Automatic annotation (TrEMBL):
Residues 81-179 form the HTH araC/xylS-type domain. Keywords: Activator, DNA damage, DNA repair, DNA-binding, Metal-binding, Methyltransferase, Transcription, Transcription regulation, Transferase, Zinc. This is Helix-turn-helix domain-containing protein. PANTHER family: ARAC-FAMILY TRANSCRIPTIONAL REGULATOR (PTHR43280), HTH-TYPE TRANSCRIPTIONAL REGULATOR EXSA (PTHR43280:SF2). Its cofactor is Zn(2+). InterPro entries: Ada-like_dom_sf (IPR035451), Ada_DNA_repair_Zn-bd (IPR004026), Homeodomain-like_sf (IPR009057), HTH_AraC (IPR018060), HTH_AraC-typ_CS (IPR018062), Me-P-triester_DNA_alkyl-Trfase (IPR016220), Tscrpt_reg_AraC-type_HTH (IPR020449). SMART domains: HTH_ARAC. It comes from Lutispora saccharofermentans. It comes from the Bacteria.
Length: 182
């Protein structure tokens, strides 16, 4: 790979070159991944290395933004995974979920973007899928009253549960139970 190809990858923040080479900035003493979102340095101030170890041996320190010292640094993916676990652990609750998501350190709008990029569905769609799967399981495997099922999966009332379930399956909860019990 030529230095011009590497410079092009750096100037375009091309993540496909991450792990193939690293670049260091002489004026700052820092080395980065090609995908680093820091300000693009001046061409005459950078040098290239095949490995992070070579950059460290040359006296450069890792970037705190792209975490060039770590083998795999994906903070956005980690946030999405934490949000997914939080949703799975608390989808039955009617309130408090938004408050718990705020503790992940990003805005509600940004959280929706991150989650959709990572999993292909919005937070509310994911919670709906979890609730639907649990409702189907409870309807077919238990004798619980439908109203108890509705409350146990996070609905505040029976009418909202019926509307949600019928829109999702085409059947009322009672019809679904009857069809999946026989």
């Amino acid at each position: 790979m030529t230095q011009e190809e590497m410079w092009k990858a750096v100037s375009e923040n091309d993540a496909s070159y991450d792990g193939i080479f690293f670049y260091a900035v002489r004026s700052t003493g820092i080395y980065c991944r090609p995908s680093c979102k820091s300000k693009i340095p001046r061409r005459e101030n950078i040098c290239f290395f095949d490995t992070a170890e070579q950059a460290r041996a040359a006296g450069f320190r890792p970037c705190k933004r792209c975490r060039s010292d770590l083998l795999d640094y994906q903070p956005i993916k980690e946030i999405a995974e934490r949000a997914k676990r939080l949703l799975e652990d608390s989808f039955r609750k009617r309130c408090g979920l938004n408050q718990e998501l705020r503790h992940l350190g990003v805005s509600q709008r940004r959280m929706v973007e991150i989650f959709k990029d990572e999993y292909g569905v919005t937070l509310s769609e994911y919670v709906g899928n979890l609730r639907l799967a649990e409702a189907k399981r409870l309807l077919s495997d238990t004798n619980d009253e439908i109203i108890d099922i509705a409350y146990s999966i996070g609905f505040g009332g029976l009418s909202s549960f019926y509307r949600f379930f019928k829109n999702s399956t085409g059947l009322s909860p009672a019809a679904y139970r009857k069809e999946h019990r026989e």
